[in-house]
Write a structure and sequence with these properties.
By secondary structure, this protein is mainly α. The chain has helices spanning 2-9, 12-19, 23-50, 59-87, 89-93, 96-121, 132-154, 158-162.
Length: 169
């Protein structure tokens, strides 16, 4: 993987992205803002299932309101993240935090998609409570997004966070 990262970092595209001094901070800012949009959108759905917010609305209505924001944020986050990886592949590919974050992003996106599909099938009135299993799944989704946020920040401090497990050696 290190050889691929070295090759990618030497490409004209990677050099072009790095040469514009304003581009990486802009991309990082957009990336961070969109993870906020994704997390809060997902959190609103989670809080509805847990019974803490929007109890006067059916969960399908809450899903339809916040899912477009969540999925739009995931797309923007993916595009900015991919561009940041192209700009600094060695930095990204040599951190434990990056790889765990990518695994959790796949889990979160898949989980949200499957969970959203199951919520759309729920024909419960607004006031009906959800079973413990649905509440646990909601809480798990929120915790995975929180872990993604933490790991995104931990990339810059991988050796300090992971110690001897760090890929930096």
């Amino acid at each position: 993987m290190h050889a691929f990262a070295d090759w990618l970092q030497a490409t004209a595209l990677s050099s072009s992205i790095k040469s514009a001094s304003w581009l990486i901070p802009l991309l990082q800012s957009i990336h961070i803002l969109t993870i906020g949009v994704v997390f809060v959108s997902s959190l609103m759905i989670v809080l509805r299932v847990l019974g803490y917010m929007r109890n006067d609305e059916a969960v399908g209505e809450v899903w339809q309101r916040f899912a477009p924001w969540m999925w739009g944020g995931v797309i923007v986050m993916g595009l900015t993240g991919l561009t940041l990886v192209v700009a600094e592949p060695v930095r990204e590919f040599t951190t434990v935090s990056f790889w765990i974050k990518m695994l959790l992003v796949a889990v979160a996106v898949t989980g949200n998609a499957l969970y959203g599909r199951s919520l759309m099938r729920v024909k419960r009135p607004a006031a009906v409570d959800f079973p413990l299993s649905a509440k646990a799944a909601s809480l798990a989704i929120a915790l995975v997004w929180l872990a993604i946020i933490f790991l995104g920040r931990a990339i810059a401090y991988d050796k300090e966070v992971w110690g001897s497990l760090s890929l930096h050696g």
